[in-house]
Specification:
The protein has four helices and no strands. It has 71 residues and is mainly alpha-helical. The chain has one domain: Ribosomal protein S18 (30s Ribosomal Protein S18, Irregular). It is globular, with a radius of gyration of 12 Å. The protein starts with 6 loop residues before the first helix and ends in a 12-residue tail after the last helix.
Amino acid sequence: MRKKVCRYCVDREAIIDYKNAETIRHAVTERGKIIPRRISGNCAKHQREITIAVKRARQLALIPCTATQLD
Protein backbone atom coordinates (compact mmCIF):
# COMPACT_ATOMS: atom_id res chain seq x y z
CA MET A 1 0.00 0.00 0.00
CA ARG A 2 1.28 3.46 -0.88
CA LYS A 3 2.27 5.76 1.98
CA LYS A 4 0.14 8.87 2.34
CA VAL A 5 1.89 12.21 2.27
CA CYS A 6 1.04 15.33 4.20
CA ARG A 7 -0.66 17.80 1.85
CA TYR A 8 0.60 20.73 3.90
CA CYS A 9 4.24 19.59 3.61
CA VAL A 10 3.90 19.11 -0.15
CA ASP A 11 2.07 22.38 -0.79
CA ARG A 12 3.88 25.05 1.24
CA GLU A 13 1.35 27.71 0.21
CA ALA A 14 -1.54 25.88 1.90
CA ILE A 15 -1.99 27.41 5.32
CA ILE A 16 -3.97 26.15 8.29
CA ASP A 17 -6.16 28.95 9.60
CA TYR A 18 -9.14 28.62 11.92
CA LYS A 19 -10.85 31.58 10.23
CA ASN A 20 -11.01 29.78 6.88
CA ALA A 21 -13.89 27.37 7.47
CA GLU A 22 -13.75 25.84 3.98
CA THR A 23 -10.25 24.43 4.44
CA ILE A 24 -11.03 23.29 7.97
CA ARG A 25 -14.05 21.30 6.77
CA HIS A 26 -11.70 18.94 4.89
CA ALA A 27 -10.27 17.87 8.24
CA VAL A 28 -13.67 17.10 9.78
CA THR A 29 -16.04 14.22 9.02
CA GLU A 30 -19.72 14.68 8.25
CA ARG A 31 -20.41 13.73 11.87
CA GLY A 32 -18.24 16.61 13.11
CA LYS A 33 -15.22 14.58 14.23
CA ILE A 34 -11.62 15.43 13.40
CA ILE A 35 -10.15 13.00 10.87
CA PRO A 36 -7.25 11.07 12.46
CA ARG A 37 -3.72 11.30 11.22
CA ARG A 38 -3.54 7.69 10.03
CA ILE A 39 -6.47 8.30 7.67
CA SER A 40 -5.67 11.83 6.47
CA GLY A 41 -1.95 11.16 6.03
CA ASN A 42 -0.89 14.39 7.71
CA CYS A 43 2.40 14.65 9.58
CA ALA A 44 2.32 15.08 13.36
CA LYS A 45 3.15 18.78 13.24
CA HIS A 46 0.38 19.68 10.83
CA GLN A 47 -2.14 17.37 12.50
CA ARG A 48 -1.61 19.26 15.77
CA GLU A 49 -2.13 22.57 13.96
CA ILE A 50 -5.31 21.26 12.32
CA THR A 51 -6.65 20.04 15.66
CA ILE A 52 -6.06 23.43 17.27
CA ALA A 53 -7.63 25.22 14.31
CA VAL A 54 -10.74 23.00 14.38
CA LYS A 55 -11.19 23.52 18.11
CA ARG A 56 -10.85 27.30 17.72
CA ALA A 57 -13.32 27.34 14.83
CA ARG A 58 -15.79 25.37 16.95
CA GLN A 59 -15.45 27.87 19.78
CA LEU A 60 -16.28 30.72 17.41
CA ALA A 61 -19.12 28.67 15.84
CA LEU A 62 -17.52 28.80 12.39
CA ILE A 63 -18.00 25.03 12.11
CA PRO A 64 -20.52 22.88 14.01
CA CYS A 65 -19.51 20.80 17.00
CA THR A 66 -21.90 17.85 16.53
CA ALA A 67 -23.71 16.04 13.75
CA THR A 68 -27.10 17.38 14.84
CA GLN A 69 -25.92 20.90 14.03
CA LEU A 70 -24.96 19.87 10.49
CA ASP A 71 -28.57 19.47 9.35
